Amino acid sequence: MFLGVTATVTNWDAEGTSCSLVLSENPLVGFVELPDTCHGLYYCNILCGVIRGALEMVSMKTEVTWVRDVLHGDDAYEMHVKLIKQVPEEYPYKDDE
After folding, report:
1. Helix/strand/coil (H, E, C) string of 4-66?
2. What CATH number has the domain bearing residue 74?
3. Is this structure's pTM higher than 0.85?
């Protein structure tokens, strides 16, 4: 939303715990070209951290990885999001005190 792009959610698994987010465009790579020596580098890996951090704020432990990247010659940007566990909320105080 803050980048001005829309993600398409696809490839849900049978348990409903993992899916893929496909971005048709990515404003972070407007003027980026990866040299041949950097094929293992995912330039926009910060987006994986942003999504993982946002989901941790709502008590979801996740694993977010890149699947496809236009900088590596793919046709779209795709991230895979997998729910590891739902973390129970902990309150720093008790209601009865």
Report:
1. CCCEEEECCCCCCCEEEEEECCCHHHCCCCCCHHHCCCCCCHHHHHHHHHHHHHCCEEEEEEE
2. 3.30.1380.20
3. no
